[in-house]
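Appendix B. Extra example for self-study. Work through it before the problem class; the solution is given directly after the inputs so you can check yourself.
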Amino acid sequence: MSATATLNIPTRNAVKTTLNIPLNRVEGDLEIRIELQDGRVADAWSSGTMYRGIENILVGRGSLDGLVITPRICGICTTAHLTAASKALDAIAGIQPPPDAVRVRNLALMTESLQSDVRQTFLTFAADFANPAYRERPLFEEACGRYTPLKGETAIEVIRQTKRVIEIVAILGGQWPHSSYMVPGGVATVPSLADLLQCRHLLAGYRSWYEARILGCPIERWREVRSQADLDGWLEESAAHGDSDLGFFIRFAREIGLDQIGRGHGNFLSFGQLDLPPDTQVRGRAGATDHLIPAGFARGSEVSAFDQAKVAEHVAHSWYVDYAGGRHPSAGQTQPYATGGESQKYSWAKAPRYDGLPAETGPLAEMVIARHPLFLDLLAQGPNAFVRQLARLVRPAELMPAMEQWLSEITPDGTFYIPTPAISEGEGIGTTQAARGALGHWVKIADAKIQHYQIITPTAWNGSPRDSDDVRGPWEEALIGTPVADPANPVALGHVVRSFDPCLVCTVHALHRGRSLARQPL
Amino acid sequence: MRRIICVGNRHSAADAAGPLVYERLARMERPLDIEVIDGALAGLDLLRFVEQAERVVFVDAVRAGGSRGRVVVLTADEAAENAPEIYDHSAGLAYLLRALRCVSEGPLPEIWVVGIEGIPEGETIKTAADLCLSIAAEGYRAARQHTAPACGARA
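Solution. Structure tokens for the complete assembly:
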């Protein structure tokens, strides 16, 4: 990994050291501080290092401005933020968008996920398989041939394919990038038959490539894999399976013990996503009737219904003005306070908790809450970096069949918008699942202006600092026990943190230290 | 088609140069075959806009060691010099230009980058916008012959 590890504080004990690790492949330059003891992580602190204050920028602006501003929080999750902002305004207006508008919104959000899941897995996560730390491993040469950045065969193919599939968002949204076509009451674009055919063509091309190269089999075959034993059988079934990128991921992950690191708290959260139109043939997972991907909270594999009232954010260890315990985001505040409490506070990210507990979110949480038998079986030994990344790698196989169905159900030139009165007063919540997990916007409008806007992003959940009870955030906890063979190249730490797909620019409250620009200056 | 693609984050002052130039260009008259795009934070997703063009001029905030308000012109290679090798969420213009050479499936267009040092003000934005239009219309070398001296070209 390209992150540099600096031996920071030599201690009295020769085997106990503290490392500061800026994970500079993560937007926002997330910084992880770890304490090592006997070559393993004994403690960890996750720090987002720049305040952005998007929530405060929104206050006082026009009631619809969240539709334009929040998609610019992140260059990757634009559609997810647009979805959450639109749903919050739908709720305030008391409007249910027409079924075809729901399909268009879903399709755009799913496309964003198709692109993100594959890019993150093979351009970011798997790039570490080509790390020199693995040069003595039998599969190293093959890993380099596949994943060396901008050279590996898979790395090049992923860029080529993922640039095509995102055109679905451009077609359905009528604009790209930073489309703002979702509005309260539906969508502002009406796809023609030609548009829909073009989307089907793009999706078919992506599916064909994903099946041939990534899975090594049809999606239908992969979805028959429902247990650890099935997975082993699938891997051995044919050369096409073993040689696919999924097959290689499994083989390499086993070789380096990816299933032995990154355990975490074992709490999972999904806000649910992809509203089911009333007349659709698509069925929700685990019997869900409102979403394709159900909402829920799980402790281990025990799933309970999601109740947004149980969400609260803590700031005891975040650089904000203190308040006792946690606050529900409808009463949340974002008042930066970077002085005082230096020994206590260490991150610009707040600490979201569900029912007082830290919870990881993302594809694995979705699989657990949807009662996916393969992932429940794999989790029998507890969560780990392998199963977390596997969930992301195969999520497109869960999404594409539903996308095909929804594309076939849309009525060209049908009803995509219900006239909605101006929004001048009210309170609403927009929740969805971004590619990285649970995303929520809590909005209050008064006198046609935004009075209150609080956003909790997936990375705020996963990368949170400690809470008021000093309980670690999810990836802080997941790092505990991780072996660090070479402090100058702590590749295993990268595996653990990247299995959560961090996007610190999305924590809203977080970014970088040391540089004033968010992006690498030219 | 010739394109001017303005990149950056309008909600972060230090990174707002591209969007500010976009706003000015959007109000200016220009030849029909020069398209102006708000590339914002789209990064790698701008590949399609580049591949399908004859000439592309990017506009972005830069740190080239000059004073605030200096406008520089960089080649694609110069702009890609400090690109991260590995893709991540911050893979911006430099990464895009580096990736372009590896993944492009057709002939590459002529590419220039108009960079602006620091947080730009009115005159700098005007200079950069005029320069972008000249380069998009004529190419850099031709445009250079009648460009204001405010342009501290490196190329």
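Self-check: Helices of chain B lie at 17-27, 47-51, 76-80, 93-103, 122-138, 140-144. If your reasoning did not lead you there, revisit section 3.
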